[in-house]
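A quick aside before the break. I want you to see a complete sequence-to-structure record at least once, exactly as it would be stored in a machine-readable document. Don't worry about memorizing anything.
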Amino acid sequence: MARARVVHYVNQFFAGVGGEETASAEPFFIEGAVGPGKPLDKILGAEAEIVLTVGCGDDFFAEQTEEAANVLLDGIRNARPDLFLAGPAFNAGRYGYACGVLGQRVSQALNIPVVSGMAPENPGLEHRKEIYIIRTSDSVRGMGDTIKAMAELSLRLLNGEELGTPDEEGYFPRGFRRN
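That is the input. The structure line, written in tokens, reads:
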């Protein structure tokens, strides 16, 4: 069986474009995995691979949401992904907002699983009904555990496995109850 195709969204910082001075960076596309996508890709292993990294400056996305989301969604659609990963954003509000909005758009437009990671205070959590959001620490010090949890949940979703409760799986409740 062919490896599942994954597209990963990161902000300008995690893409290596720069810090706050480049927060106005327009949407960009990079083949393969960069930044936190590299360890994600390694854990996904033989089952899935990050074929494209998409990104945008935090300010650009927050100030020009429709334009950024439309440009990014077109690029994501063209990559024909089986899964979309966003972040992790931890407690970075603008980054979490972008992960949530773009994740929701991808989920609705492409009908594929979307996984992100955020701290409980992140405003991007408002999109938890549409996407799976792994619970993270408030800063990147929890990157290793977060990457592992995002990858493991992603593989379970790709394989069509039945998930346990949000507490068991480590994601925020999505507002659905099962008997």
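Two observations worth writing down. Helices lie at 37-44, 58-63, 65-78, 93-110, 143-158, 166-169. The chain is about 35% helix and 20% strand. We'll return to this after the break.
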